[in-house]
Amino acid sequence: MFPVELSGARARTLMWAHESDIEAAALQQLRNIARLEWVHGVRVMPDVHLGKGATVGSVIAMRDAVAPAAVGVDIGCGMESVRTDLTAADLPDDLRSLRSRIEAAVPVGFAAHQHEVPVKVLAGRPSGATTATLRSGWDRFWARFGELDERVAPRESKAHKQMGTLGGGNHFIEVCLDTDDQVWILLHSGSRNIGKEIAERHMDIARKLPHNQNLVDRDLAVFLANTPEMAAYRHDLTWAQEYAARNRAVMLALVCQAVREEFPTREVRFDVPISCHHNYVAEEVIDGTPMLVTRKGAVRAGKGDLALIPGSMGTRSYVVRGKGNPDSFDSASHGAGRRMSRNAAKRQFSVADLVAQTEGVESRKDAGVLDEIPAAYKNIDEVIDAQRDLVEVVATLRQVLCVKG
Question: What's the rounded Cα separation, in Å, for the pair 102 and 174?
């Protein structure tokens, strides 16, 4: 059934969705991307939808070039999850207290910590291969802030205080149950305001470069290899991707501590966390040639890679293992994907609809999160089914608690 080729695309574009199921503007956006002379190929995931510049749910392999829009403004946005030794039977009937405890530990929306979160909080983070790396190197990491684009220098204090914060939009912290009634923690966030600031400043530089002046869409402006502009972007991008990973590490530690405090009479144990970016750049070999691969709303699904594909706040999410399908550039979707814009969701649905669609989930149920109503998203089960040749399901998670900004 899949993949299918996108009609009218210059560079080969394989899709795990039918053209009839994708909005016309997103299809044109994909064709615009495929027209870029540096693009070797485009792969389109089943959660595809319109994005700024580059399409969400796209994987782009480029020769000696990279388009900042193909990464997005939330550099390093991604997922982190951990299974606990708690079961459904351990959870109280009313999860309001646990949600309040998590919200007190992790600022959401535009809020930030009053002071920088001490590194020692990571002592409570579940152990794993990445934990030692994230627990160390903090002095050097923050010292590198001074090496970033000088225009973000005024944001340093804010970046410190936003480390370990959730943000808003589709970002979330959830407590979930798998099919064996085991309790999991799942969270989704990125590089906060500093990632956005870095991305927008470099996008502005790219648009003004001579080789980008005749592009059909200036938002697709690229940096070229062996230029100072590319070097500066890759430098700042790498730092922002690390910021996002450290941000999730701190948040997970804070949430784990909140869970421990909610169950003071027992020692809660945690497995090794699963982590993945879904807005990033990587150097990979595609069709035998080194390429710069951007995934915007897509995860790496190389053979054996574990990844997380969330649905909406009232449905379910999936832990998956990659099959290493070269047709997809070793990629899979990053989530369910929106089927309507935020404004459209607010116009079409009411708070009563939100309450009905999130029944059984301890969460906000007010107009402030109406744009995140489950019906605004594609059917996550159909999205997973469309990519059975890309991933295998390891665990299915059902939300019982959701924190949003």
Answer: 10
How far from 168 is each of 135, 337, 381, CA to CA, in Å? 26, 16, 25
Would you say 243 and 162 are in contact if contact means Cβ atoms under 8 Å apart? Answer: no
pTM value is 0.96
State the amino acid at position 231 in one-letter form.
A
User: CA 77 → CA 82, 121, 209, 344, distances in Å?
Assistant: 17, 22, 27, 24
Contacts for 44 with CB less than 8 Å, ≥ 6 apart:
6, 13, 14, 15, 16, 17, 30, 55, 57, 58, 59
- Just list the catalytic residues: 334
* pLDDT tens-digit series, residues 18-51: 999 999 999 999 999 999 999 999 999 999 999 9
Q: What are phi and psi of 263, to 5 degrees?
A: -125, 70
b/e for 386-395, b at 16 or more Cβ within 10 A? Answer: bbeebbeeeb
pLDDT tens-digit series, residues 200-234? 999 999 999 999 999 999 999 999 999 999 999 99
Is 239 exposed, middle or buried (CB count within 10 Å of its CB: 0-12, 13-18, 19+)?
A: buried
HSE-CB for 355 with a 13 A CA cutoff: 5
DSSP codes joined into one string, 234-297: HHHHHHHHHHHHHHHHHHHHHHHHHHHHHSTTS---B---EEEESEEEEEEEETTEEEEEEEES
Strands 298-300 vs 306-309: parallel, antiparallel or unpaired: unpaired
Task: Say if CB 354 and CB 282 are below 8 A apart.
Answer: no
For residue 351, the SS3 value is: helix
